[in-house]
Structure formats: C-alpha cells, structure tokens
Amino acid sequence: MIQRLMYPSQEDFEEDKDFCFNMWKKIALNESIEYLLYSLDKVGFDFSPGEKTNKVFENLLEHFSVAQIYSIIYRAVANSTKLYQEKRMPRKKAANAVITFCESNGERAIAEGWNLSKYRRDYNLPETLISQVFFTSILKIAYIGFEEKPTPDI
To answer: Residue 3 belongs to what H/E stretch?
Structure first.
C-alpha cells in the first residue's frame, strides 16, 4: 500500500479520464489563485477570493494554461497597482479591480486570438506535492500540466 501511495500507477488512473481532467482543472485553479494571492500580497493589497474569482479563473482555464494565466494576473496586478499609486483608485477598489482586469484581458485575448506569453513558476511558489505527483507520476506529462491548458485528451 505504501508503494502504491508513493509511486502511483498511471494505469490506475488511465481508465477514468473525467477524474484526471477534473483533477487537472482543480489543481490549475488552485495554482492560479495561489499566484493571484501571492502577487496581491507583494504589492500590499488585501484580498479574499470569492465565487466571482473562482468563476473568472475557471473560465480562463477553458482557454489558457496556468503559465498563461500567470501573465494575465501579472498584467492585472500591475495595472491596479499603477491606478492606486496614481491615486486614481483607493487600495480596496484597486485590489478588487484585479479580478475585473483578469476577466476583461482574458476575454479580449480570446476574442482577438492573442498568443499569451507563458510565465515560469515563481521560485517563491514551488510546485506543490500534489501537482508534482499528479502531473509527473500519474499523468507522466510533468511541466506540461503547467504550460498547457487542462484537456480531457490526456
């Protein structure tokens, strides 16, 4: 049993593609929100993700990888921070505007067919153990789980 937990077999998961696809989306959503919170904290914005945040990122993950969503978040945080620093928006409103910027930039990228840059993992946010086990040991796709959008065609 310990062997199976430490070194899960790909065959145990290959049959349930829905499970794998849904797990990929959950991991990607959590990694995206983790980067969002980290980025907001770095600029001194307090933020608690709610249902809208989850819905925005779930929609973005239909079209983009976590690596690409990192670029959307980076741009949104930079824009909000600039507005706050220019005193054009209070701190709380600027923090909340990040989600709106992520949503609108994502929709625009989809509509205009942008080829978004793929960011690397931030060294302050290393890959989680669940992500490492799932993508490397189970799916055998390693970094592709971060660089490609979730897909049921695994």
So the answer is: helix 2-6
Q: How far is CA 2 from the centre of its chain?
A: 31
Q: What stretches of the chain adopt beta strand conformation (E)?
A: none
What is the number of other CB atoms lying within 10 angstroms of the CB of residue 2?
Answer: 6
CB 24 within 8 Å of CB 145: yes
- The H or E element containing residue 138 is none
Q: What is the pLDDT of residues 30-46, one digit of tens each?
A: 999 999 999 999 999 99
User: 3-class DSSP state for residue 123?
Assistant: coil
CB atoms under 10 Å from CB of 126, counted, come to 10
Give the predicted TM-score (pTM) of the model.
0.91
CA 16 to chain centre: 23
Write b or e for each residue in 73-112: b if 16 or more Cβ atoms lie within 10 A of its Cβ, otherwise e. Answer: bebbbebbbebbeeeebeeeebbbbbbebbbebbeebeee
